[in-house]
Amino acid sequence: MAKAGLRFVLIPEYLANSRMHVGAKTIRQRDEVFRDTMALLKRHCGYIPLSWIFGYTAFCLDHRDQFFAPLQPSVWKYLASLPVGIWHNRRTPQRFVAEWAAKPFTVAMRRLRHGSAR
Asked: Within a 13 Å sphere around the CA of 79, how many CA atoms are in the beta-carbon half?
């Protein structure tokens, strides 16, 4: 919609709600949800940001659903996110490397802990 030039406005009230449970696709098929979301980001934005790459890398390494079993950041997972991010952003690897390198581990982990990886 933004690409079509439509303007967005703030509506200061809740219009929808959701609930999470262990049988929800978001939890049960976490790998598929990550892959679908990253494909959508790549298709529409041409880039998958560090927060999604890190979340996916962490999921692949520890299989935590990152909702009921919250994401557990580690230096190893952060380091492992570099080649994963370069692979998924192979048309613009320098952009990913710059984003990855610009955020010291502690800054990136603080940001990711506050929900941007969900």
From this structure: 3
